[in-house]
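Hey team,

Filing this mostly as a record. A colleague (T.K.) asked me to run one chain through the structure pipeline before their review meeting, and I want the input and output archived in the tracker in case anyone asks later how it was produced. No errors, nothing strange. Just documentation.

Input sequence:
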Amino acid sequence: MSDQLVRAISSDGYVKAAAVSTRYLTERARQIHQTLPVATAALGRTLAAASIMGNALKGNGSSVTLQINGGGPLGKVLAVAESNGCVRGSVTNPQIDIPLRADGKLDVGSAVGCDGTLTVVRDLNMKEPYVGSVALLGGEIAEDLAAYFVESEQIPTACGLGVLVDRDQSVLVAGGYLIQLLPGAPEEIIMKVEGSILAAGTVTQLLSADDSAQSMLERALSDFDMTILETVDIDYRCDCSRNRMERALISMGVAEMESLIAEQGEVDLSCHFCDRVEHFSVDDLNGILSGMKQR
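Output structure:
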């Protein structure tokens, strides 16, 4: 099965929304990075949010990067999504394990930390990407993302994100939604959205009952008549290649490349986002070095 993203708009034209079910891509990320539960939850929430935001760009080749640096033990949580909604990500310290909260839930806020920033980088294939950043509120990610939209883009936003981890540390459900008011929405619409979300329950509760992104969105906005605009399949997808890794070696410069060859003779390079490993033999490295010197 594949994960899905849906987009919708209310019949009154005041509310637009998107939702994702991301169980399989979050489990893929967990396996690649060997994350413990709190890291799985933090990375999974970030992947879901990035997927929604990336898909909203629509421009071919455009992408969104979410960077969360909260000063907590997890380090940096990073996710990159393309305009098709496919996403990849990483966390600096995936093996961090901290006590559960008093209510028995994973303490994502403490693991991420709140002494730092959420940064959003939108690359629209123009000369310079758009970069926006806000101070973290609590490190739980959903509320921080909602604050970003209000502060940086002046868009009233409700965000729900969730990851439920099983006893064997695999992902049971994962996903989220982003609900935004369109210009001209009256005050009563805001109250109606808030009431509908509150009545629906959490993202993990909604997905545990039915892991369909469309079902989750319709229940989160049960007080509205929603029209589905788009449904797309999404997955964990990395665009790494041997050529990209070779360019990384070239970026080291001649002196450092010569030192690498002298000290190691060969090297295995692994992708930051996936489990791909490329081996460069001493002949490969000497060939790259020769090309560098000819430039």
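Quick notes for T.K.: The chain has two domains: 3-234, 242-294. The chain has a mean pLDDT of 93.
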